[in-house]
């Protein structure tokens, strides 16, 4: 349950803090005092989108922080699913920077808004003023049936099967489309593949062939130059090696006289050895250069083939040609094995559909089993709330598969005796919608282990004894859940364990919304004003006090 709420720098709220009672909390105040602003701030804790325009002071960040006591609610798995540490004392924090950037934290762990929504939906349920209208929506009616039937796990299993069915069907359809396209391209692709395959390309052969062709085309000149270089190095008559050998001997003789010159002799000797190696390599290179016109023609022919293929496929390297060859082979293989692949894909789609339909059938059966119990409970509670002649029929009809199953649910309702039930949105009045929603929230409260439920004027359109009975329902719900009810009705306001008053403070340059927990006397005064307006009479004050005492017993 919500143990503490802190709101700083949000809309008309400079700073507001409250610690709700574990039972039934009442919030009252004039229209526009800031009650809806509080709900907006709480909505941010549940993952609603933030807006920098909502900052009270545009130079400071907005902070909304809710502390929740979750002991006894078995919510640890929900936190584990989001990779967030669980604690019985959970703190959710939302910040909006002056630049409009939003950050969210659960137990000091940063989370995205989707994770925040999933965690928040397990902690707190807000019924806003406009949610009663949703009761006329068939998808909402389906969710009511599923909640009552405890279908969360069955629905999750079905949705997994439905997703697998959609994926398998999509894969089969895609393969069918691809098959038609591939069959059209098969002959041309086969020609291209055969051409590349016959070429027997090697990844680095182009570079090697170009080097070889360059040597073959210039073989005569290369041999002449290599021979000249060798002759200069190792001509018996007058060569560099012979001269260097003589220099080494001369320095050696000088070194025998003065040993310090021996280092120079060693350097000359090393140079002599290196030059001899170079001369040998030049001689070998010269010997390896063949003047072979036939080989040159073969190399040129091979390069011409490579160049033609590169141009044809609009690439620049042999490696890219090899990749094209591999891709063509893959496409040809698919076509050659297409019938088998189509059979496999179709079989997978059929099996996925059968699994999905099996899950959907189980889900449908459980939905149909609970409809009568829901009808009975709703009608019993509606009778208590002043609609004794109501009739309700929950129809479950089969539809095409959707993410919610094979069922469409429709609540057919009549609030009057002898009137044929029709769809809610066509026949229910505002007051009937409010009472219906109150009843549904009441019967579903224990089906979902929600720590906190917030009602924002769910009493719209009701008054008198009916409002008092709605207050009693909230009291009963508050035995197992924390209830926060925003109301304008004194019958409901007198039912609470704690009473908070929201008001506007105009004492500063800028109006701010504030909240305070009322003392017993302040509460009597507030309820008396709700009954008789400002400056209530003594009799109204006595009436208000008696009403509080009566509703607390």
TrEMBL record:
Alphabetical list of CDD domains matching this protein: ABC_RecN
* InterPro entries reported for this sequence: DNA_recomb/repair_RecN, P-loop_NTPase, RecF/RecN/SMC_N
Task: Locate the coiled-coil region(s) and give their ranges.
Answer: 165-226
- Keyword Plastid assigned to the entry: answer is no
Which SUPFAM superfamilies does the UniProt entry name for this protein?
P-loop containing nucleoside triphosphate hydrolases
Q: Which UniProt keywords apply?
A: ATP-binding, Coiled coil, DNA damage, DNA repair, Nucleotide-binding
Family the entry assigns: Belongs to the RecN family.
Protein name in UniProt:
DNA repair protein RecN
Give the gene that encodes this protein: recN
């Amino acid at each position: 349950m919500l143990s503490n709420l802190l709101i700083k720098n949000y809309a008309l709220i400079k700073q507001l803090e409250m610690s709700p009672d574990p039972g039934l909390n009442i919030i009252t105040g004039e229209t526009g005092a800031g009650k809806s602003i509080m709900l907006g701030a709480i909505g941010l804790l549940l993952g609603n989108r933030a807006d920098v325009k909502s900052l009270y002071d545009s130079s400071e960040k907005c902070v909304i922080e809710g502390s929740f006591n979750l002991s006894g609610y078995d919510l640890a798995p929900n936190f584990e699913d989001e990779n967030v540490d669980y604690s019985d004392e959970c703190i959710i924090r939302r910040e909006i920077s002056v630049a409009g950037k939003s950050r969210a934290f659960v137990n000091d762990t940063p989370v995205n808004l989707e994770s925040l929504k999933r965690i928040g939906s397990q902690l707190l349920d807000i019924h806003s003023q406009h949610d009663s209208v949703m009761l006329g929506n068939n998808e909402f009616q389906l969710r009511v049936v599923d909640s009552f039937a405890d279908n969360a796990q069955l629905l999750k299993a079905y949705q997994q099967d439905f997703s697998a069915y959609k994926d398998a069907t999509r894969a089969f359809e895609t393969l069918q489309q691809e098959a038609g396209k591939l069959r059209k391209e098969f002959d041309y692709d086969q020609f291209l593949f055969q051409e590349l395959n016959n070429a027997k390309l090697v990844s680095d052969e182009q570079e090697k062939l170009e080097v070889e062709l360059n040597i073959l085309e210039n073989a005569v000149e290369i041999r002449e130059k290599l021979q000249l270089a060798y002759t200069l190095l190792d001509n018996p008559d007058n060569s560099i090696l012979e001269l260097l050998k003589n220099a080494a001997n001369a320095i050696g003789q000088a070194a025998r006289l003065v040993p310090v010159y021996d280092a120079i002799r060693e350097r000359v000797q090393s140079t002599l050895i290196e030059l001899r190696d170079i001369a040998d390599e030049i001689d070998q290179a010269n010997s390896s250069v063949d003047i072979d016109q036939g080989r040159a023609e073969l190399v040129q022919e091979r390069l011409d083939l490579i160049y033609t293929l590169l141009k044809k496929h609009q690439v620049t390297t042999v490696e890219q040609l090899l990749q094209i060859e591999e891709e063509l082979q893959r496409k040809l293989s698919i076509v050659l094995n297409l019938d088998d692949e189509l059979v496999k894909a179709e079989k997978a789609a059929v099996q996925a559909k059968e699994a999905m339909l099996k899950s959907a059938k189980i889900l449908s059966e459980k939905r149909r089993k609970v409809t009568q119990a829901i009808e009975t409970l709703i009608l019993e509670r509606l009778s208590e709330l002043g609609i004794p002649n109501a009739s309700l029929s929950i129809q479950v009809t089969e539809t095409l598969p959707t993410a919610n199953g094979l069922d469409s649910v429709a609540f057919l309702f009549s609030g009057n005796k002898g009137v044929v039930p029709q769809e809610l949105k066509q026949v229910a009045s505002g007051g009937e919608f409010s009472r219906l929603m109150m009843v549904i929230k009441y019967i579903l409260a224990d089906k979902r282990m929600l720590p906190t439920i917030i009602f924002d004027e769910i009493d719209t359109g009701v008054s008198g004894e009916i409002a008092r009975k709605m207050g009693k329902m909230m009291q009963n719900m508050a035995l197992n859940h924390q209830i926060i009810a925003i109301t304008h009705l004194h019958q409901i306001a007198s039912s609470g364990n704690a009473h908070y008053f929201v008001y506007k403070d105009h004492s500063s340059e800028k109006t701010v919304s504030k909240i305070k927990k009322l003392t017993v006397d302040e509460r009597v005064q507030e309820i008396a004003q709700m009954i008789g307006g400002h400056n209530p009479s003594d009799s109204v004050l006595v009436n208000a006090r008696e009403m509080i005492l009566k509703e607390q017993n």
